Amino acid sequence: MEPLKLLPAFQDYIWGGTRLRTEFGKHSNLERIAESWELSCHEAGQSVIMNSVHKGMTLKEYLEQDWAARVGEGSARSSVFPVLIKLIDACQDLSVQVHPDDRYAREHENGENGKTECWYIVDCEEGAALVYGLNRELTKAEFRTTIEKGALMDAVQLVPVKKGDVFFIEAGTLHAIGAGILIAEIQQNSNLTYRVYDYDRKGSDGKPRELHIDKAVDVTKTWPAPPRRSASRTEYEGYTAAVIADCPYFTTTEMHITEEASFPAGGGVSYTHLLCTEGEAALVYDDGVTMPIMKGDSVFLPANFGAYQLRGENCTLLSTQTLPRR
Ligand code: ZN
Questions:
Q1: How far is the CA of 117 from the centre of ligand 1 (A)?
Q2: Domains plus CATH for the chain?
Q3: Is 68 left (phi over 0), alpha (psi -120 to 50) or beta?
Q4: Which has more pLDDT, 127 or 111?
Q5: Å from CA of 143 to ligand 1 middle
Q6: Which of 15, 218, 291, 297 has the largest CB neighbor count within 10 A?
Q7: Catalytic residue at 32?
């Protein structure tokens, strides 16, 4: 069984920069690359397999085929792959926005998933900051008035960030990535966003981008977000590990490897996604086969992948999901 290198899908939203091309090895004809969707089975941008006999297939097609082979045709299980992982390069501030939870999304958005997400600050400029929830409790009516009179930025928590910081953005939490921040985002597989405030900017068609105030008022938690949990890093021989997200949708560990880290085979894990955010790694599997992983690369390890090692000096985000037993 081979590790699968993934070709991401790109998005050129107006606030994007060029660092994903110049520093993270991404190839695209787009002038700016706001987002690369590194692990995606979402219809708005799908990952494509770059190697092995599955080369050229979308990850979604591969997983459907894999699932059918395992449990038989007709199971829709893998067609709703639960996680989406992105790199996001914010050259300008992103709009202040909020996402619904599963319950609201299923009722009001044609059965789509809600969106809880986790941010890992891969890199940022000095003085960069982001919006994380409100700075005080408001009633829904006060929240709406604050938006309507253009005073929302006075009511939000603006948090300065540094490399390696982690934010868990539960559905319903108002948020915005600030200019000069490059993040890895691990999120539920959903593209549902309610835009609340866009700094009165114009979109690429010269018109202001649409806001979704009513829905945002419905879903926003109008009290301050819980204090941020900082990731606690544990040192081992050859690497440091920190669980940066652990929720029903995904589990992600930041691995700072100086020499080598070893991982045992399978163990009920349905997949593993590796995203190298710094340095370069050698993925060693099958007793000595080596695959180089460069900064910005994404590799998907299928279910039941054997034991492997990551070698070299690198920082790699390792996301897994354990499916419930059938
Ligand atoms: Zn978001």
A1: 7
A2: 4-219 (2.60.120.10), 233-322 (2.60.120.10)
A3: alpha
A4: 127
A5: 19
A6: 297
A7: no
Q: Mind spelling out the 3-state secondary structure of the chain?
A: CCCEEEECEEECCCCEECHHHHCCCCCCCCCCECEEEEECEECCEECEECCCCCCCCEHHHHHHHHHHHHHCCCCCHHHHCCEEEEEEEECCCCCEEECCCHHHHHHHCCCCCCCCEEEEEEEECCCCEEEEEECCCCCHHHHHHHHHCCCHHHCEEEEECCCCCEEEECCCCCEECCCCEEEEEEEECCCCCEEEECCCCECCCCCECCCCHHHHHHHCCCCECCCCCCCCCEEECCEEEEEEEECCCCEEEEEEECCEEEECCCCCEEEEEEEEEEECEEEEECCCEEEEECCCCEEEECCCCCCEEEECCEEEEEEEEECCCC
Report the separation in Å between the CA atom of 298 and the middle of ligand 1, taken as the mean of its atom positions: 21
Q: Out of 19, 21, 32, 195, which one is annotated catalytic?
A: 195
CA of 194 to the centre of ligand 1 (A): 9
What is the reported pLDDT for 325? 43
- b/e burial code for range 305-323 (CB count within 10 A of at least 16 → b): beebbbbbebbbbbbbbee
Q: 45 alpha carbon to ligand 1 midpoint, in Å?
A: 16
Q: How far is the CA of 110 from the centre of ligand 1 (A)?
A: 19
pLDDT tens-digit profile of 17-69?
999 999 999 999 999 999 999 999 999 999 999 999 999 999 999 988 888 88
